[in-house]
Amino acid sequence: MSSTWSTGLCACTKDMPICFMSCCCPCVQYGKNIEAFKQGSCLVSGVLWLCLNGMGVSWFLSCSSRGEMRGKWGIPGSSFEDCCCHFLCACCAIAQEAREIKERSGNSHSGMGMAQPNLPKHNK
């Protein structure tokens, strides 16, 4: 199954909350992306991204998760392209990935607010 990204890399303004979070707090948006895509920890992923960003190598972590997204959804591209996107414009790449997760999952994943936990329902 082959498809394409639902929005372009530089289409940040198509979803302003995601745009804002990706530009102002990319570590938070990256963590939210990982949480929504892989069911990983938003806090751990965000802090790891922030620490690696302090050393100038957050793009290495980000391009890996972008490749996983492409693979899962059959989006053409290469690891080299993924790394270039995150190395040259991490905020745009993180925002594009957030929009894609939102589009493909059909949920309200966005740049603002906290993720809603999946709590079991109790019958009384």
How would you describe what is shown here?
It is a single chain. This protein has helices spanning 16-24, 26-38, 42-54, 58-73, 79-88, 90-105. The protein is built from six helices and no strands. The chain is globular and about 35 Å long. It has a domain at 25-104. With 124 residues, it is mostly helical. The model is unreliable at 114-122 (pLDDT under 50).
Low-confidence stretches: 114-122
Order of helices and strands: HHHHHH
Number of strands: 0
Number of helices: 6
Strand residue content? under 5%
Concise account of the structure shown:
The protein has 124 residues and is mainly α. It has six helices and no strands.
Q: What's the helix and strand layout?
A:
Elements: H1 16-24, H2 26-38, H3 42-54, H4 58-73, H5 79-88, H6 90-105
Helix pairs in contact: 1-2, 1-6, 2-3, 2-6, 3-4, 4-5, 4-6, 5-6
Essential attributes:
124 residues; mainly alpha; 62% helix; globular; disordered C terminus
